[in-house]
Amino acid sequence: MTERSAAVVRFLTPQDREAWEELYRGYRDFYAKPHDPAVFDTVWSWLMDDAHETRALLAESEGRPVALAHFRRFARPIDGAYALYLDDLFTSPDARGTGAGTALLHRLAEIARDEDAVLVRWITAADNETARRIYDREATQTPWVTYDLKPARA
């Protein structure tokens, strides 16, 4: 499969737990996050709950899930509109360069269009050069700087 080949992108189903967990584990490995079973169970429960804001897509190559995207809708008061936030995008190392990540981004753009969202936004690590090549080709880097504020102590 070449970069121009189209992966099949679909929403996650309850039957995808094992494939999703393998991809999510790879994503967490990439960012050096521990494999806490409670986190896996919590995120899976969110993804299986139609009332929860978090949704997931899988990209398949030859019928095998090779990439995932977790995303959610959020309000943009500055625009008086909604947008989609891409929390996580991961392609298994053996499927990089196949177009799976690009296919996920294109599907997210379609969902944004269909749901009247004004954009799809995400962040990535500055040194994530492989992903940034795709992101730079498919999207516009913003000038915004990201901050994290920890909760106040009790």
Low-confidence stretches: none
Query: Helix proportion of residues, in percent?
Result: 25-40%
Number of helices: 4
CATH architecture: 3-Layer(aba) Sandwich
At the first level of CATH, the class is Alpha Beta
Mean pLDDT: 94
The arrangement of helices and strands along the chain is EHHEEEHEH
| Overall outline | globular
What would you report as the Rg, rounded to the nearest angstrom?
16 Å
Q: What structural class should be given to the helix and strand makeup?
A: alpha+beta
Kindly estimate the percentage of residues that lie in beta strands according to DSSP: 25-35%
Strand order of the largest sheet: 1-2-3-4-5
Would you report the number of β strands?
5
Into how many domains do the coordinates divide? 1
What's the CATH H-level superfamily name?
Answer: Gcn5-related N-acetyltransferase (GNAT)
Tell me about the biggest sheet?
Answer: 5 strands, mixed
